[in-house]
Amino acid sequence: MSFSATVLTLYPEMFPGALGLSLAGRALEASTWSLEAIQIRGFATDRHRTVDDTPAGGGAGMVMRADVLASAIDYASPAGDPRPRLLMSPRGKPLTQARVRELAAGPGAVIVCGRFEGVDQRVIEARGLEEVSVGDFILSGGEPAALVLLDAVVRLLPGVMGNAVSGDEESFENGLLEHPHYTRPQEFEGRQIPEVLTSGNHKKIAAWRRAESEKLTKERRPDLLAAHPLVK
Ligand code: SAH
């Protein structure tokens, strides 16, 4: 069974977007995964197809209505749907490679994209939405965040990446940032490829890469080292 993604959005035209190209696009064509983008507005009940309203308690902006969103979720993910229901949200748990791996190993995901100031808290609780953040910054909507999440997941699906090995050595997979890469030409503007990499000594190369990874992680992301004490 292939990974099945359903996205609830006010901008279904944003999908598949970038995911229609390159690796993800080919995998979509090959039915390695499927993507359905559902217009939330289709579940509005009034004449004006209202999906948002002013915030209770006052303040700027608009809030997405719980009732409209709940109808959309119930349509996209009826009782018994095994897929997790995610809400893209800057208040969510930051997305990690570990969570991406879990999602890729599962049946798919139902992804709600917020707009405006966000969504009514009651639908988050009533439909058990798992809030997921793609970083400590504010996007104008959940759609780019959903594209980011799906991109990360889809590349892990069996058969999507040509060279399966390259996945395991990447940044975060072992709790470290990846070592630097080089390719031809041997000299670029007076800079040489580090000698060890052209030595043909695979043990030395592996040791050099590991040392570079650790150095880089120490410099740039000491928080990662703290989270993986064995690496120290
Ligand atoms: N007022 C909210 C931000 C709303 S941004 C706050 O301060 O928390 C509008 C929508 O964009 C959100 O509902 C969410 O779906 C999406 N979004 C914005 N930033 C995001 C992020 N860092 N990660 C995931 N989704 C995000």
Description:
The chain is an alpha/beta fold. It has two domains: 3-154, Alpha/beta knot (3-Layer(aba) Sandwich); 169-232, tRNA(m1g37)methyltransferase, domain 2 (Trp Operon Repressor, Chain A). It contains eight helices and nine strands. The chain starts with a strand and ends in a 5-residue tail after the last helix. The model has no long low-confidence stretch (mean pLDDT 95). S-adenosyl-L-homocysteine is lined by residues 88-91, 113-115, 117-118, 133-135, 137-139, 141-142, 145.
Which sequence of strands runs across the widest sheet? 2-1-6-5-7
Largest sheet, strands/sense/barrel: 5 strands, parallel
- What would you call the structural class? alpha/beta
How far the N terminus sits from the C terminus, by CA atoms, comes to 40 Å
Unreliable stretches (pLDDT < 50, length at least 5) are none
CATH hierarchy: architecture of the largest domain: 3-Layer(aba) Sandwich
Report the bound ligands by name, code or SMILES.
S-adenosyl-L-homocysteine
Content of β-strand: 15-25%
CATH topology (fold) name of the largest domain: Alpha/beta knot
Q: How many structural domains in the coordinates?
A: 2
The percent of residues in helical segments reads: 25-40%
C-alpha Rg (nearest Å): 22 Å
Shape: elongated
Order of helices and strands: EHEEEHEHEHEHHEEHH
With helices defined by DSSP (H or I, 4 residues minimum), what is the helix count?
8
GO molecular function, one term: tRNA (guanine(37)-N1)-methyltransferase activity
Function: Specifically methylates guanosine-37 in various tRNAs.
Enzyme class: transferase
Region (Disordered): 211-232
